[in-house]
């Protein structure tokens, strides 16, 4: 497994111990002297997902600064270029990516997520022979890759696909109940997706596997995307209270409104939400009403010793309320690609399939321990493996993290999986 700093240091001239000091002295100068490597990113810098877009940009900027301080890629500094995908969709995203290639000759594009694209990003990467890493968290990436691995050789998904949220959530609830930490009043679960591919795939996976984990689905209701009017859905939940409410909609402002409206007449149900509670807006809008909410993510900065320097650097640079748990995605993505480009001897350029193919081959082979956990490319889909529901070895899969907001004035607490947990689950204050 590669350590990112040691690897890049080695490729900027630090070999034997006797040369290490000289390499440290010359590292920044070398990065400044080389021809820049232009790296692109197509991000939602405006529109409903701008909160995430800002953090994705932050993660790229921090990674680029660190890589350049370490000597760049074989002495060449990274120069970032961002294109706004606004409200996203196939046309806006593909156009943004193509502009990055046409204007800056980018050999790599590192994206966060973009919605409603039908994974057209993979076609842009293939048509231009560039590396494209993204965090869409979609099983459709894997499915598209399988249709033509040779064409889509340069497309990588930096986290496990959303399908794994389904069995992971059910396993978490079952473990919580069997461990005596939560006494489920019944076996019912209510599933509330919103009208987008990501939410629906997760909700369907939970619905289809519920019986295997001993649960029955009492309500499956799709709400608009976006939405902040939860009254009709809450009325149905209050009429037939389930043991757990599973909301797979993910916009933080909408989820905060769910909790505000839920607590006007709460029921004895656990509340699990999808991803959105990781963003500062959830806490800022929801305030004390979010205390007790559980959420999960298959990609997010771990609160461990390994990521401590990153967490501190991120908030020192971008402010105490910045969401390092989100910026960590593109941060790791840029580091992974940079190391692979150094090992391959050159980052390549658009339409240089031979050299870009070498970079892709390294990315497939490397097992990378980043601040989000371990990335290993699944050869059948070129996305990360998920621990523990897909692989049992934590050194070969990215942890599916479960976190709980226990005090809205502090960061959420990591409560599962057990090998990574820093805190214990607390019964939500509304459950009597």
UniProtKB/TrEMBL annotation:
| Record's keyword terms, sorted | Amino-acid transport, Signal, Transport
Limits of the Leucine-binding protein domain: 36-380
Q: Name one GO biological process term.
A: amino acid transport
Q: Which InterPro entries does the protein's record reference?
A: BCAA_transport (IPR051010), Leu-bd (IPR028081), Peripla_BP_I (IPR028082), TAT_signal (IPR006311)
- Matching Pfam families, A to Z? Peripla_BP_6 (PF13458)
Task: Please give the Gene3D superfamilies that the UniProt record associates with this protein.
Answer: 3.40.50.2300
Q: Does the keyword RNA-binding apply?
A: no
Record flagged with keyword rRNA processing: no
- Similarity comment: Belongs to the leucine-binding protein family.
Official protein name in the record: Amino acid ABC transporter substrate-binding protein
């Amino acid at each position: 497994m590669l350590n990112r700093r040691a690897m890049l240091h080695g490729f900027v001239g630090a070999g034997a111990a006797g040369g290490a000091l000289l390499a440290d002295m010359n590292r920044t100068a070398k990065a400044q002297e080389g021809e820049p490597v232009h790296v692109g990113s197509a991000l939602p810098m405006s529109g409903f997902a701008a909160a995430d877009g800002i953090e994705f940009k932050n993660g790229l900027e921090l990674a680029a600064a660190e890589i350049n301080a370490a000597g760049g890629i074989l002495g060449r500094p990274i120069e970032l270029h961002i294109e706004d995908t606004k409200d996203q969709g196939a046309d806006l995203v593909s156009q943004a990516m193509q502009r990055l290639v046409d204007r800056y000759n980018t050999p790599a594009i590192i994206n966060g997520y973009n919605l409603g694209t039908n994974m057209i990003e993979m076609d842009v990467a293939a048509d231009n022979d560039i590396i494209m890493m993204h965090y869409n968290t979609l099983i459709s990436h894997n499915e598209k890759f399988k249709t033509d691995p040779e064409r889509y050789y340069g497309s990588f998904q930096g986290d496990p696909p959303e399908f794994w949220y389904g069995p992971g959530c059910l396993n978490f609830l079952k473990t919580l109940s069997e461990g005596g930490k939560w006494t489920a009043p019944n076996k019912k679960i209510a599933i509330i997706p919103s009208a987008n591919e990501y939410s629906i795939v997760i909700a369907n996976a939970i619905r289809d596997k519920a019986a295997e984990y001993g649960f029955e689905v009492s309500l499956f209701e799709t709400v608009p995307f976006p939405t902040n009017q939860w009254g009709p859905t809450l009325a149905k939940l209050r009429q037939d209270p389930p043991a757990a409410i599973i909301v797979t909609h993910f916009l933080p402002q909408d989820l905060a409104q769910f909790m505000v409206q839920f607590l006007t007449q709460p029921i004895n149900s656990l509340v699990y939400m999808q991803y959105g509670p990781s963003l500062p807006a959830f806490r800022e809008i929801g305030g004390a009403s979010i205390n007790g909410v559980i959420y999960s993510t298959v990609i997010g900065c771990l609160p461990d010793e390994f990521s401590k320097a990153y967490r501190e650097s991120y908030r020192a640079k971008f402010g105490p309320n910045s969401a390092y748990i989100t910026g960590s995605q593109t941060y790791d993505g840029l580091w992974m690609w940079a190391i692979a480009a150094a090992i391959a001897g050159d980052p390549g350029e658009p339409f240089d399939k031979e050299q870009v193919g070498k970079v892709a081959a390294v990315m497939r082979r490397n097992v990378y321990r980043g601040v989000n956990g371990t990335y290993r490319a699944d050869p059948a889909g070129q996305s990360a493996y998920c621990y523990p529901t897909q692989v049992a070895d934590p050194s070969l899969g990215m942890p599916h993290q479960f976190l709980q907001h226990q005090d809205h004035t502090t960061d959420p607490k990591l409560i599962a999986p057990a090998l990574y947990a820093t805190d214990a689950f607390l019964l939500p204050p509304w459950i009597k």
